[in-house]
Amino acid sequence: MHGQTGIEPRTLQTQTDDCWLAAATKSKIPDRFAQAVVDIVGSENVSTTDAVREQHGHDESYHTTSPPDIVAFAESTEHVSQVAKLCNDHEVPLIPFGSGTGLEGGINALKGGLCLDLSKMKKILSVHPEDFDCTVEAGVTRVTLNNYLRDTGLTFPIDPGADASVCGMCATSASGTNAVRYGTMRENVLNMEVVLPDGRVIHTAGKGRRTKKTSAGYNLTNLFVGSEGTLGIITQATLRLHGIPEATISAVCSFNTIQEAVDSTVQILQMGIPIARIEFLDEVSVDACNRYSKLDMKVAPSLFFEFTGSPDTLDKQAEVVKDIASMNGASEFKWASKPEERNQLWKARHDILYACMALNPGSKPYSTDVCVPISNLPEVITRSKEAIQKAGVIGPIVGHVGDGNFHVFFPTDRSNPEEVKKISDVSVYMAQIAMELDGTCTGEHGIGMGKRGLLQQEIGDEGMEVMKQLKSTFDPKGIMNPGKVFPE
Amino acid sequence: MHGQTGIEPRTLQTQTDDCWLAAATKSKIPDRFAQAVVDIVGSENVSTTDAVREQHGHDESYHTTSPPDIVAFAESTEHVSQVAKLCNDHEVPLIPFGSGTGLEGGINALKGGLCLDLSKMKKILSVHPEDFDCTVEAGVTRVTLNNYLRDTGLTFPIDPGADASVCGMCATSASGTNAVRYGTMRENVLNMEVVLPDGRVIHTAGKGRRTKKTSAGYNLTNLFVGSEGTLGIITQATLRLHGIPEATISAVCSFNTIQEAVDSTVQILQMGIPIARIEFLDEVSVDACNRYSKLDMKVAPSLFFEFTGSPDTLDKQAEVVKDIASMNGASEFKWASKPEERNQLWKARHDILYACMALNPGSKPYSTDVCVPISNLPEVITRSKEAIQKAGVIGPIVGHVGDGNFHVFFPTDRSNPEEVKKISDVSVYMAQIAMELDGTCTGEHGIGMGKRGLLQQEIGDEGMEVMKQLKSTFDPKGIMNPGKVFPE
Q1: What pLDDT sits at residue B15?
Q2: Are the beta carbons of B261 and B283 closer than 8 angstroms?
Q3: Whole-angstrom Cα distance, residue A329 to residue A254?
Q4: Cβ contacts (< 8 Å) between B371 and chain A: which residues?
Q5: Burial bucket for residue A415 (CB in 10 Å: 0-12, 13-18, 19+)
Q6: Which cofactor does it need (chains A, B) (predicted)?
């Protein structure tokens, strides 16, 4: 058997009473394959129980669960490499799993196969405070990393909301509220260790390299950022860190129209004010926030601001922003300079998903995201709201307005197919408007299984052909996360 | 003939007395091929004269000229597509040419072939001031673009020194003094139109898309940024623009040691001060500046600073920086808040290449660049200086210290092979030290023909294998800029 799989015999076990082995017979995976997986990662790291397979068969999205046949937990790059080679040799689908917090069904095992859970790879391998970088294993989450970094005065600011694994964030090209200041994963990953489907281990910028910039060869790093597990498995990432700002103040203000809020944002950006966050909430979201977080904001299109920097410069930044907002018709400009006020405000923003769900008790989120050039935001938001209204569903809108990116968090009764269909139709329509207005069908959630058809439309036939060629180059047998990104 | 090349017959000319045709016979290119090129771009856009071929056979580096056999000037993407297909069908080497301002021999026609000059493609196709983006054709230079943008209050801040074409800057992954604030080309290109060797035209982010971020499919944009003409021909780029800061002040100060200058830089970055430029000059460069630009700076390791922002906040930023520098042993802290003083200072920095050349009259530049994590800068600079001294050559050091990137501008007598050999040996040694210290052999000049062996060492065998696979995917016949990036 080992000769067949190309794996060196290690601790071949003759387990007869192992629960995983019994369970394996229920699934499509042959015992011999399952045994080979055990030989690599150890029996404690393999499961074929329904509960574990079910848990690994879906993310936080509305997509129907598709469990893998077998789940393996990797503890090292060596594990990943050997499992990949095994799957490749036997043409078994291989789905990398980080934290399961994705929003487009990126981990659903549409063709069964092996789910490789990387959450046990959680070493923080190095932190270089003077160089503003660190290197972590695949399973480290952003909150764990930031807790670890606390004493260094540095932070990894990319914040997609969920406590996602860093390598999952790489795979999805995640971003969030801080992107207007710090960029997305694309701008904050310096290097990655990646296991290719055939088991080869590469370092996208060369082993150990961690420079802020380079012109040496093709940018493999940014080819794997956003590849959604379809080209290889990210096992380590070297990340840019940023200084924790000395001081922070926050503010919130409301407008009469979406246009006023967007115009204010454009003018603030034009002034080059190094604002840390600008978040848009429509009146439905504000209402949800008020109810859920016990606030008393005016129910109107609103902007949340966060200013960071040295205490001396903050007030001046904020005054300029207040002037700009006022000139554009803002009212109810409220400061939150004390930590408790600020925390309350941003906690409300952070809890907005729960607040939106509370608008429809018992519901679960159906979350979609699109991104357009900022000047097109008013049109795409207005038309989206019309579509939401026409469909008769609840659709609060929350946006990273500085990036032209926004979400609708539909509180959905997932057991009601009619409602799901309506919401799905609105989501597709939103993506269509975004694309019509020079935008993209996803700013930060990725394509996964949910937006495959839209990608074709967005990139065009020639672009898709090239992406397929890339896929074939890295994964000629098509084992990596099959059914994702590419339309069937 | 057209049947063979797959090109639609257009204005087939029967020129008998054309000078290009006469000249073509001198070169390796068959008349029939040259005629097919004329049929595509018109006879006014083809040349095989020695002068034009020679001019297209080298950039600004020390590498020996390798002229192409034929030079064609494209006026449209359609021209580029048809020429690429022609070259591909006939397996003729194809070298894209922007402005010829590269520093690693990226355009030298090592295998002869056709040089496709894009400098006639100079339309600024669109500017969207509220969206901070513009789309330009391949041949637009950064100075032309910034002159055009002046009235919008926006700027394209990437400044590699030379007035390079924007698409050449894309191809090299250029950066420069502003990168510490605005990033490199990697962070500032939103989309590109690219012609593949077989003539297919793709838009890396989908046609017309210009969002600040996207998670839709593979990041083709950043695969072509830095591809140095080896994967395809960049014909258009959509770029991020930035607001021109309201106010600017500059300062210069000197230190006792390189370590003090680097420590100051690290602390300034840790404070999160949004500094626009921090440039390091060693004592040799300062001396060169003093002589050439009639300044009276202390001859010691020095930092040039530029602060930008709203007038209210600038002084405070600058005071903090002064305090940090003083605590690290800085002396001679000189402000330049008036435009004329500031211009004098930064003109001196901008003219540094000429100043360095003047240290060795009649010399031409041999310029090299490496990049390391910033904490390793003192070691790599100190060891580089030792090597320069030991070799007995003049080697002024100038660095984008905030990025860990620095250059040596050797004033070289290119006619003296012994001197060139010494300098080349020092350059290779510098790259070796940089790589030993987690760095890269090139931060912004690219690999070109000069650093092919070093790339192999930097990326490792597996990484190079993957880069070669990518090259074969896009350019299976190997016609695109052959002899570059990859070691033979």
Answers
A1: 35
A2: no
A3: 9
A4: 211-214
A5: exposed
A6: FAD
Supply the pLDDT for residue B352: 92
The 8-class DSSP code of residue B64 comes to P
A308 and B469 within 8 Å at the Cβ level: the answer is no
Confidence at residue B339, expressed as pLDDT on a 0 to 100 scale:
85
How close A41 gets to chain B, by Cα (Å)? 24
Q: Which residues of A touch B320 (CB under 8 A)?
A: 310
Residue A18 — very low, low, confident or very high, per pLDDT cuts 50/70/90?
A: very low
Distant-in-sequence, close-in-space partners of A452: CB < 8 Å, separation ≥ 6: A484, A485, A486, A487, A488
CB contact under 8 A, B187 and A183: yes
Q: Which residue of A has its CA nearest to B173?
A: A215
Helix (H, G, I), strand (E, B) or coil at B247: strand
Question: In this model, does residue B270 exceed pLDDT 70?
Answer: yes
Suggest the residue from B103, B210, B218 to mutate for an interface test with chain A (most A CBs closer than 10 A): B218
For chain A, the distance separating the N- and C-terminal CA atoms, rounded to the nearest angstrom, is 34
Domains parsed from chain B with CATH numbers: 124-243 (3.30.465.10), 247-437 (3.40.462.10)
A310 interaction partners in chain B (CB closer than 8 Å): 271-273, 316-317, 320
Give the separation between CA A488 and CA A183, rounded to whole angstroms.
Answer: 32
pLDDT at residue A346, as a whole number: 86
Flag whether the pTM goes above 0.90: yes
Tokens of B385: 């200086």
Q: Is the CB of residue A44 less than 8 Å away from at least one CB of chain B?
A: no
The mean of the pLDDT values for chain A is 92
Asked if the model's pLDDT at residue B12 lies above 70, the reply is: no
Q: Report the DSSP pairing between strands B154-155 and B242-243.
A: antiparallel
Taking the C-alpha atoms of residue B223 and residue B94, their distance in angstroms, rounded to an integer, is 19
Other beta carbons less than 10 A from residue B365's beta carbon: 20
Say if A463 is an interface residue toward chain B (CB within 8 Å): yes
User: How many other CB atoms sit within 10 Å of the CB of residue B391?
Assistant: 17
The minimal CB distance from B270 to the residues A243, A403, A404 is found for A243
3-class DSSP state of B262: helix
- Whether A354 and A292 have beta carbons less than 8 Å apart is answered as yes
- pLDDT for residue B271: 82
Which residue out of A180, A215, A220, A221 would a mutagenesis test of the B interface target, given it has the greatest number of B Cβ atoms within 10 Å?
A: A215
Spatial contact of A165 and A140, defined as CB atoms under 8 Å apart: yes
Residue that is written with structure tokens 């090259």 in the block: B471
Nearest to B399 by CA among B247, B277, B221: B277
**A314-349 residues labelled b (16+ CB within 10 A) or e (exposed):** bbbbbebbbebbeebbbeebebbbeeeebeebbebb
Return d(Cα B110, Cα B113) in angstroms, integer.
9
A8 pLDDT above the threshold of 70: no
Residue A466, chain B, CB below 8 Å: the answer is yes
